Amino acid sequence: MKLAVLSRAPRSYSTQRLVAAASERGHDARILDTLRFAIDLSGDVPDLQYRGRQLDDFDAVLPRIGASITFFGLAVVRQFEQMDVYTPTPSNGIANSRDKLRSIQILSRHDVAIPATTFVRDRADVLPAIDRVGGAPVVIKLLEGTQGIGVILAPDTKIAEAVIETLQSTRQNVLIQRFVAESRGRDVRALVVGDRVVAAMRRQASGDEFRSNVHRGGSVEAIDLDPVYADTAVRAAQIMGLRVAGVDMLEGAEGPVVMEVNSSPGFEGIERATGLDIAGAITDYVAAQVAFPEIDVRQRLSVSAGYGVVELSINEGAALVAAGTTIGELREQDISVLTLNRNTTVIPNPQSDRVIEVDDRLLCFGNLEAMRGLVPERRRNRLRVQPLHDEPLLEERR
Ligand SMILES: Nc1ncnc2c1ncn2[C@@H]1O[C@H](COP(=O)(O)OP(=O)(O)O)[C@@H](O)[C@H]1O
Ligand SMILES: [Mg+2]
């Protein structure tokens, strides 16, 4: 395949490793400077110019977008998507993961543990917010910090209030988070590629520091990841809309607590700690996807007016249940059930003779009117379009 690696740092370890891994496997990999693209919307089809010239055809793109160029970088990745170039880290996924509040909001509706977190604006709401996450000590975070900068542990309420007030006075948005003390300065980084964790390490903060970031002096060691942690990491990446991600988890009293999902994880620390070939795993995964690409359903379906993807929650008293309706009978009403969620099991492509039960959740594609007719009037707020990657309607500019 012909692979574009978007990077502003052609000599950085991760970029070099990706190119080397791709070349070893007989692929043609090029490093392209993210900021030298021109997004061209003047012709009949979406296009990209690179360094003033028409961009070659690429099969896949691996974006490594630094925080400082998020806005332009996302626009470039989005343009590759419009041109049907495969990427394991789509622009929505990168945008979701960039902002600590947005990512935690998206994770919060799913069955993945996150640290108790609040976000407030008014001074009067700060004290109740601190209480709500369990009281001091609390962690205070800037929404877009990296490398541990902008993450503060406030030992008592007075200091917490003062820190929040100071940051807000400089127009910075901060979130207030429960301090997961039992993790004791440790956390786990799992590198997810596709549906599995390809490498994992534990990071330990140095001395009395609570932040485990390597940039803050943290040390790393390879670990055999507990399957519960591996499952959580894969789920978190999937929820964010990322097929390649570095998922950071605290070791909570009741298991993994997802703190962060990184869309451009560095490989140096984790390859050195584990001796594993992460760049190779990513390249192999991307090559397999290029041969059989997934489709962003939302973009393809919006053109068929009157049809959509909807999640139906089957409540007690639903006529469907009383009538013993089957999946096959729904199909006759122009509704295809893509996935059936029953208790904790997920049944993809359920068989047509399967009977619908109370508390089932059906992810359906079909005629919107027909689906609307299936839910009683007062329950209609439970009929909602399932956002596939939880994309916000408007990009918030700060
Ligand atoms: N709620 C928390 N409880 C305990 N430790 C935390 C918490 N949040 C962050 N940390 C520690 O601080 C480090 C940096 O926080 P993180 O949110 O990952 O910010 P950054 O994006 O700057 O790395 C984490 O790796 C972890 O060691
Ligand atoms: Mg981090």
Describe the overall structure.
By secondary structure, the protein is an alpha+beta fold. It has four domains: 2-97, Rossmann fold (3-Layer(aba) Sandwich); 116-179, ATP-grasp fold, A domain (Dna Ligase, domain 1, 2-Layer Sandwich); 185-291, ATP-grasp fold, B domain (D-amino Acid Aminotransferase, Chain A, domain 1), CATH 3.30.470; 297-385, Regulator of K+ conductance, C-terminal domain (Alpha-Beta Plaits, 2-Layer Sandwich). Helices cover 29% and strands 27% of the residues. The strands form five sheets. A five-stranded antiparallel β-sheet has the order 13-12-11-14-15, sandwiched between helices. Strands 18-17-19-16-20 form a five-stranded antiparallel β-sheet. Strands 7-10-8-9 form a four-stranded antiparallel β-sheet, sandwiched between helices. A hairpin with a 2-residue loop joins strand 17 (335-342) and strand 18 (345-348). It binds adenosine-5'-diphosphate (ADP) and magnesium ion (MG).
Main-sheet strand order equals: 13-12-11-14-15
| Proportion in helices | 25-40%
Overall 3D shape: globular
What is the radius of gyration computed over CA atoms, rounded to a whole number of angstroms?
A: 23 Å
The structure class reads alpha+beta
Mean pLDDT figure: 91
Approximate strand percentage: 25-35%
CATH architecture of the largest domain: 2-Layer Sandwich
Tell me which ligands are bound. Answer: adenosine-5'-diphosphate, magnesium ion
* Number of discrete helical segments: 13
Count of structural domains: 4
